Amino acid sequence: xxxxxxxxxxxxxxxxxxxxxxxxxTKMLLYTTLALVAIIWAxxxxxxxxxxxxxxxxxxxxxxxxxxxxxxxxxxxxxxAEFPIWAWFRNSLIVAATTTAITVSFAALAAYPLxxxxxxxxxxxxxxxxxxxxxxxxxxxxxxxxxxxxxxxSDSYFSLAVPPAANALAIFILTQFFQNLPRELxxxxxxxxxxxLGFFFRILLPLxxxxxxxxxxxxxxxxxxxxxxxLIVSNSSATQTLPIGLAAMVAGSGMSMKQSVIMAxxxxxxxxxxxxxxxxxxxxxxxVATTGIRG
Length: 295
Hints:
Blueprint: H1 2-51, H2 56-59, H3 74-82, H4 85-116, H5 122-131, H6 137-150, H7 157-161, H8 168-180, H9 183-191, H10 196-207, H11 209-225, H12 228-233, H13 242-253, H14 259-279, H15 281-289
Helix pairs in contact: 3-14, 4-8, 4-11, 4-13, 8-11, 11-14, 11-15
C-alpha cells in the first residue's frame, strides 16, 4: 500500500509539473505572438517619426536607419513656416472635442431609458438604431449637405461637428454597459428618495466611466481623422480641418515637397489621437477587462 501511495503521489507531481510546463509554454507563445504583432504595428510609425527628423538624403537609405545620423528640425520648421498648420490644428481640435462631447452626452441620455426602463416600443427603437448600421454614411451625406446648405450653415463649425455626433454605435455600447449594472443599485437609490435623473448623474455615470471613455476615444479618433465630410461642407480656409489642409498641401506641392515634410505633417496629425488615447487608456482597458461580466 505504501508503494502504491508513493507511486500515486509521484504521478500526481509529474502531472502537475506537466500542466505547469504547458501553461508556461502557452503564455510564452502568447507573449511572443503579441510582441511580434506590436513590432509589426509599431514599425511604420517609428519609421515615420524617424524620417521626420532626417535630412532628405537619409530617408531612402538602405538599410533603414531607425535613429537618424543627423537629427534636424528643418522639416517641422518648413511645415509650420509655410503652411497654416496651427489654424488647421485648432479647427480639428474644436470639431473633434465638440463632436465627442455631444456624442457622449446625448448617447448616455438615450441609452439610459433603453437600458434601465421598460416601455412599449423599446425593442422597436433598438432595432431602428441597429438598422442604421446598414446605411452607408455616403448615402446620408447628400441630404445632410443640402439641408445645411439651405439653412446657410454649411461652412461652419456646427456643420462639421454636429451631424457626425448622431452616433448609433455609441448608444448601443452605452446601452449594453448600462444593462450590466446591478438593478439593486437603482432600487436602493429610489428607496432613499433619489430621482431617476439623480441616479443617472450621481451613480450611473460615475460607474460608467470605462464605457464613456471607450465611446470618447472612438468618437474623438473618428472625428479627428474624418476626411470625407469636412471635404464636402468646408468651403473656406477658415474652417479647414487638419486632414483637408494636409491633403491640399501635398496635392498643391506635388513632387517638389520633401518626404521629410510629409512625414512631419503625418506626425503632427497623429500625436493628438495618441495623447487622447493614453489619457483615457486606464478606463479603456478597464472597459475591455469587464466586458461580459454582469452584476
